[in-house]
Amino acid sequence: MSNHSSEDIVKVENLTKIFGSGKKAVKAVDNVTFSIKKGEIVSLVGQSGSGKTTVTRLILRLLKETKGKIIFEGQDITGLTGKEKKLYWKKVQAIFQDPYASFNIFSPVKKVLIDAFKLFDNSFTKQEKMAKVYEALESVNLRPEEVADKYPFELSGGQRQRIMIARAHLIKPKLLLADEPTSMIDANLRSGILELLLGLRDTEGTTIMFVTHDLGLAYYVSDRLFIMHEGKIVERGDADKVITQPEHPYTKQLMMDVPKLSEEWILK
């Protein structure tokens, strides 16, 4: 789909996460290895409980791995300190399934977005910040004059998710982890969110890991697909190949849940 770099931005090596111990131990992520190239969109696809969200939280450093390495821009980030994590989060951001949980419910939209400047560049004047906030809102097809002064509870799920993408537009992370960003949005609005993610990659060069249970959506947005099942990646490859020539029984099962893909999608 895109002319991405041949250079890896992130490499996950033999990543394992075990919750609990003894007989109650659960291996949520089981010796997972993969890499993502700069400017690429890769999807991690699997049903609930497959381990995909745990991988996301490990890359974000919201969880500590049991073993394995995560290499970001050539550096093993598994041992980052608190201060180092803040620097890391300037480069790696996330959009979650429920955007409402990502908001300060007592802050209007414009403050949520202005606060993003603290992460990457606080040198702008107040007027410059507002101009950039309005530009970011317009970039996700929202009218600033209609949403800037509203609070999260006054917005629809689709609007809230667009605002989180606008926030990413402001911060300009090198890697964006999008964990089920369309699952709480009406089906007729999902393609719009996917187009915004594609636009973020095409205009800013943002690398994106799209995490979803929906193989059809993953195919639409991705260069490559990683299929996760029971904590392992059971199939991987170019999106076209995985969709048209699935090999693993689990991938074939996921295909059964996907409405017939249109010729337009197959020829993307």
Automatic annotation (TrEMBL):
SMART domains: AAA (SM00382). Keywords: ATP-binding, Nucleotide-binding. InterPro entries: AAA+_ATPase (IPR003593), ABC_transporter-like_ATP-bd (IPR003439), P-loop_NTPase (IPR027417). One of its GO terms (molecular function) is ATP binding. The keyword Protein transport does not apply. The keyword Signal does not apply. Residues 10-255 form the ABC transporter domain. Gene3D superfamilies: P-loop containing nucleotide triphosphate hydrolases (3.40.50.300). This is Peptide ABC transporter ATPase.
